[in-house]
Every structure is written in structure tokens, then in C-alpha cells.
Amino acid sequence: MANKQEKFKEKIENESSKKIRAKEEGDQILFGLGAFGIIGWSIAVPTLALTFLGLYFDRISTTEISWTITMMVMGLGIGCLNAWYWIKEKSKNK
Question: What is the pLDDT of residue 67?
Fold first, then answer.
């Protein structure tokens, strides 16, 4: 009788530890997906905004400089710096 109770107790402990691990891993996966989305937006928004600003400058400017490409590269750089800063801050909080 005691042997059955010990096996039952071990089974419950194993199942509960599996559930706890699954919950923790699930939270990490959700955090990873959320981080992926935020990083993507933090790069895309400045890049697109400055690209459209560059298009506007190309329309009103008479210079041979391509403002669209210049501003797109600047937006990409700002977006990457923004994403790097966000990742650095989130890494501190973990």
C-alpha cells in the first residue's frame, strides 16, 4: 500500500513540475514573440517615416542628391539604434 502511495506521489510531483516548466517556457516564448514584434516596429516606423520625408524633399528640391535614399538610410540607422536600446533595457529587467 505504501509503495502505491509513493509511486502516486512521485507521479503527481513529476506532472506538476512538467506543468510549471511548460508555463515558464510558454511565458518566454510569448515574450520572444512580443519582442520580435516590437523590434520590427521600432525599425520599420522610423525607416518609413524618414523615407516619406525624403520623397517630399525630392519633390521640392532641385539638387541631385537623392533625399529618399539618404533619409531611408538615416531612418534605418535610427530604427536599429532604437531596437538596440530597447533590447538593452529589456535585458536589464530580466
Answer: 94
Domain extent at residue 43: 2-93
Residue, of 29 and 13, whose pLDDT is higher: 13
Return the number of other C-beta atoms located less than 10 Å from residue 18's C-beta: 10
For the segment 3-11, the average pLDDT, to the nearest whole number, is 78
Tally of residues, the chain: 94
CA distance 9 to 6: 5
**pLDDT at site 6:** 80
Is residue 40 within 8 Å of 80, Cβ to Cβ? no
* Range 49-54 contact pairs with CB under 8 angstroms and sequence separation of 24 or more: 49/75, 50/74, 50/75, 50/78, 51/75
Residue ranges of E strands in 1-94? none
Domain count, the chain: 1
